[in-house]
Amino acid sequence: MYPPNFDYVAPTSLDEALAALAGAENTKVLSGGMSLIPLMKMRFVRPTTVVDISRIPGLDDVTDDGDHITIGAMVRHATTASHPLVQEHASALAEAANGTADLLVRNRGTTCGSLALNAVAADQPGAALALNATMHAASVRGTREIAAADFFLDAMTSALAPDEILTKITIPKGGVSTYRKLGRRGGSSDYPIAAAAVWVDVSDGSVSDARIALNGVSSTPYLAVGSAEALVGSDGSADAIASAASHATDGVNVLEDLYATVAFRTHLAGVYVRRALEDVLA
Amino acid sequence: MEVSITVNGAKHSSEVEPRLLLVHYLREVLGLTGTHVGCDTGYCGACTVIVDGIPIKSCSMLTVQADGCEVRTVEGVANGPELHPVQEGFWECHGLQCGFCTPGMIMSSVALLERNANPSETEIRQGIEGNLCRCTGYHNIVKSVQYAGAKMRGEDPKGASSEVAS
Ligand SMILES: Cc1cc2nc3c(=O)[nH]c(=O)nc-3n(C[C@H](O)[C@H](O)[C@H](O)COP(=O)(O)OP(=O)(O)OC[C@H]3O[C@@H](n4cnc5c(N)ncnc54)[C@H](O)[C@@H]3O)c2cc1C
Ligand code: FES
Ligand code: FES
């Protein structure tokens, strides 16, 4: 199945790529292509110009920058999953990347592409929320930073403008995090039916800060504020975890689809929050 | 667009449309029909080829994205008439039935053994995670890769594959 015709440019500098995006109507950024190319083949999206950013040098690094780590636009899922810096400082994201799709897709798809697309149930957006990642967007108008909490607007919709490139994300160091999912095929591969990414900071035996994100549960990933409130200030005991888990879907429109009813998915959301919290508070 | 791609060691320069998928370039422009199209959606892995050392799904990559790259397909793994150890393993251990998934399975297995000379059974199953087989139940595919790994390490391949519980 061929995608419809389009013009293709593969700039070798960010400025050229931004100019190409600004200079034409109906453009799309191409990074890993693991969603864009299937979507174009199915005619769900029909860009007239595709701007391939994979030939721009310097976008494929994971770096240690003091109080945060940086993941560039062309860092593939396979690298995010296995990179020691991500594993040490953002383990929820490493685990989410490792559970994304299959090995062959992880060899091409990028973490930033997955965040930019915000596909329903995608793995890494939940982890980016829990880790309080900052999105760095560039366009011909300049650069801006977008907090993860303001980035995932709705199914297949992020806060990026059509002419913006997500050039990198930064993740603050500190705390501990993990990601737990129930995949559609039972294991960890493939999109989740429900998943929880949790981040906690513990000092003097009590939980001083927490962020609990769920993906696959609603049309876009979200922070379960009630769950975090139930946990912060507690000793992280089984009771505190159970209380946090009971607020996993407060105020949320829970999805119903082929894989789960609303009631089952609501149940799963609590189970995966509990399991993830048991893991980081053990 | 003009692209220059090395396939199985031979350099090709071709004029292609940006929308031409790598799998169609290999099959229809170069006539290398060993690489199969199974699902055409990115799920099955029948179209797996190795690009710059990394196994990928060629139905989900544009030919223009492979400009300047080195591509290996199933046609390029044998050494003349001598089968690659992975091909020999599939032959010896009955690693295929209909054979449709086999080119992709072989390319994922070749790439796996190049980065991990002695994979465990779990690592082999993870290495072919992106390749679906409708016939074999994977069991004999795992044996085939164990056979190949042993042969490539200079061990007795027949001993290696019989260790898999059947
Ligand atoms: C078989 C298969 C199984 C999959 N399973 C899963 C799964 O289990 N879990 C999961 O989360 N995902 C899954 N995916 C999706 C996969 O993770 C994609 O890699 C990801 O959604 C998109 O990343 P990409 O780099 O391939 O982006 P592309 O496909 O290149 O682009 C996707 C979209 O994002 C935009 N975009 C990409 N990069 C940028 C950027 N830097 N700045 C601005 N816009 C950008 C593009 O314009 C496009 O609209 C699967 C895909 C396949 C083919
Ligand atoms: S044909 Fe490419 S993944 Fe199925
Ligand atoms: S042998 Fe038939 S699909 Fe694998």
Please give a structural write-up.
- The complex is a heterodimer of chains A (282) and B (166).
- Chain A is built from eleven helices and 14 strands.
- In chain A, the strands form four sheets. Chain A has a five-stranded antiparallel β-sheet with strand order 4-5-10-6-7. In chain A, strands 11-12-13-14 form a four-stranded antiparallel β-sheet, with helices on both faces. Chain A has a three-stranded parallel β-sheet with strand order 1-3-2, with helices on one face.
- Chain A is globular, with a radius of gyration of 19 Å.
- The mean pLDDT of chain A is 97.
- Chain B is α+β, with helices and mostly antiparallel strands.
- Chain B folds into two domains: 75 residues, Beta-grasp domain (Ubiquitin-like (UB roll)), CATH 3.10.20.30; 74 residues, Orthogonal Bundle (DNA polymerase, domain 1), CATH 1.10.150.120.
- Chain B contains six helices and five strands, in the order ββαβββααααα.
- In chain B, strand 1 and strand 2 form a beta hairpin.
- In chain B, helix 2 packs across helix 5.
- Classes of the chains: A alpha+beta (282), B alpha+beta (166).
- Chains A and B meet through helix 2 and helix 6 of A and strand 4 of B.
- The complex binds flavin-adenine dinucleotide and FE2/S2 (inorganic) cluster (2 copies).
- Flavin-adenine dinucleotide sits at the interface of chains A and B.
User: Based on the structure, what is the oligomeric state of the protein chains?
Assistant: heterodimer
Biggest interface, CB < 8 A: A-B, 27 and 28 residues
Q: Give the name of the CATH superfamily of the largest domain in chain B.
A: Beta-grasp domain
- What proportion of the residues of chain A is helical, as a percent range? 25-40%
Pick out the low-confidence regions of chain B.
none
Order of helices and strands of chain A: EHEHEEEHHHHHHEEEEEEEEEHHH
**How many E-type strands of chain A?**
14
CATH class descriptor of the largest domain in chain A: Alpha Beta
Shape of chain A: globular
Write down the Rg of chain B. Answer: 16 Å
What is the CATH top level name of the largest domain in chain B?
A: Alpha Beta
Query: What is the CA-atom radius of gyration of chain A, in angstroms?
Result: 19 Å
Helical coverage of chain B, percent range:
25-40%
CATH topology of the largest domain in chain B: Ubiquitin-like (UB roll)
CATH architecture of the largest domain in chain A: 2-Layer Sandwich
Which fold name fills CATH's third level, the topology of the largest domain in chain A? Uridine Diphospho-n-acetylenolpyruvylglucosamine Reductase, domain 3
Cα(first) to Cα(last) distance of chain B is 52 Å
The appropriate CATH architecture of the largest domain in chain B is Roll
- What is the makeup of the main sheet of chain A? 5 strands, antiparallel
Separation, N- and C-terminal Cα atoms of chain A: 50 Å
Which cofactors or ions or other ligands sit in this model?
flavin-adenine dinucleotide, FE2/S2 (inorganic) cluster
